[in-house]
TrEMBL record:
GO terms for molecular function: oxidoreductase activity, acting on the CH-OH group of donors, NAD or NADP as acceptor. Pfam families: adh_short_C2. Belongs to the short-chain dehydrogenases/reductases (SDR) family. It comes from Pseudomonas abietaniphila. This is DitI. InterPro entries: NAD(P)-bd_dom_sf, Sc_DH/Rdtase_CS, SDR_fam. The lineage of its organism: Bacteria, Pseudomonadati, Pseudomonadota, Gammaproteobacteria, Pseudomonadales.
Amino acid sequence: MFTYVAWEIHSNNNKKGAAMSLLRGQVALITGAGGGIGRSVALSFAKQGASVVVAELDEASGAAVAEELKALGAQALFIRTDVSSKADIQAAIDAAVTHFGGLDILVNNAFAPTPNVLLEEKTDDMLERTLNSTVWAAWWSMKAAFPHMQARGGGKIINFYSIDTEIGAWLHGDYNTAKSAVVGLTRSAASEWGRFNIRVNAIAPTAMGATFHKLAEENPGFAEMSAGLRPLGRCGEPEEDIGPVVVFLASEMSRFVTGETLHVDGGLHLPGYNSRPKDIPAREY
């Protein structure tokens, strides 16, 4: 009932041209918000009235997104953040609290990619880089955000997961390992921090970001093939398809949802996909 009424009210407001306000008065920090899905989440949050901290490693893109949000009428702050650095993450959380007075929403989106190579060719350094930018980054940011959310009487944490882990995607051994751990962390925090009214969920999105467009350009027919794998028959738009779902998890519409892993992929998780490189033989012994 609550969800229906909320959407009806805001739908009517939107028809009148009024600004949506599902997140009005909320302070959100989004890692990796300088581009791709992170930027789309930031834009979606801004349109819903949130004050947004753009925690991004690339200064040019991070600052540009902050200006985009301000142009929409939102309060925004760019903080250069290397999520593989505990000190950087702590500084970003501190900046959010100092600048906006608190923290209500944390979105752990950023990660540092490593070369796409076979598992036997993955190095300890690659795994360490991936763990630092995903598991450790989420651990550090969640622990840093916790006392501020507790002080506000609750909070929302959204961690990013991936369908790659579920299908054991080739060439992503370190990434699959790390994202599995993120789900474990998400569920543990949801179990233990519910007593503080802190909701913790994970989202597994796929959308037409920079990597998708690069693959589509290099491989004729890739976009059509990718769309055909999904029961909905199309690929996702970052802002139109992913952003609103993160807004849902960050808003009071999901106030009874925690410990959930939500696929936002047009149904791709149902059939999955074959990630085996074409040049890898079935047997090599």
